[in-house]
Amino acid sequence: MRTLILGGARSGKSALAERIAIESGRDVVYIATARAGDAEMHERIAHHRERRPSHWESVEEHLALATALRDRARHDRCVLVDCLTLWLANLLAEQDAPRFERERGALLDVLPTLPGQILIVSNETGLGVVPMGALTRRFVDEAGRLHQELARRCDRVLFVAAGLPLALKGTYG
């Protein structure tokens, strides 16, 4: 089962993904993509760490997400990626177009082959106005295209608003 969980900032998407992981009854591997570049981001990361069960395996991977997934996915595991848009921002910040295309393609290629349960959390950024600035527009465009590709490859797609999940593909609950 591959699940894409989309929502806005503070929508409850991470909490939902963590609840699904716990309810799976499987060993959980949590792949964190955030980089703590400032004090506020350190606090956000600490909040996420405190909320997770201590027995979950945690992996920090900022760029090579497909490799991390391939190395850790097993039939008896639930792998939770939080969050895809931070990973995308990390790749775009590298300003290495060939690496961006390679990593994006690798993720899309590996996802359908992975055993076990995969949960991918991502921010839906395309609900507002077209942003000012070329880099911000590129980020929103790339996130939107990536979400569409992932949604095709996932068994279930959930959208979260105000902590409430809405099944866009598949079922929940």
Describe it for me?
- With 173 residues, the chain is an alpha/beta fold.
- It has a single domain, classed as Rossmann fold.
- Helix content is 45%, strand content 24%.
- The protein has helices at residues 13-23, 39-51, 65-72, 84-94, 97-110, 134-153; strands spanning 2-7, 27-32, 57-60, 77-82, 117-123, 156-161, 164-169.
- It has a seven-stranded mixed beta sheet, sandwiched between helices.
- 31% of the residues are buried.
- The model has no long low-confidence stretch (mean pLDDT 94).
* The CATH class: Alpha Beta
Average pLDDT level: 94
Total number of β-strand segments?
Answer: 7
Topology as H/E string? EHEHEHEHHEHEE
General shape: globular
How many separate helices? 6
Rg over C-alpha atoms, rounded to the nearest angstrom: 15 Å
Strand content: 15-25%
Distance between the termini: 15 Å
Indicate the low-confidence ranges by residue numbers.
none
Count of individual domains: 1
- According to CATH, the homologous superfamily is P-loop containing nucleotide triphosphate hydrolases
Annotated CATH architecture: 3-Layer(aba) Sandwich
Residue share in helix: 40-55%
As for the CATH topology, it is: Rossmann fold
The largest beta-sheet arranges its strands as 3-2-4-5-1-6-7
Structural class based on helices, strands and sheet pairing: alpha/beta
* Biggest β-sheet description: 7 strands, mixed
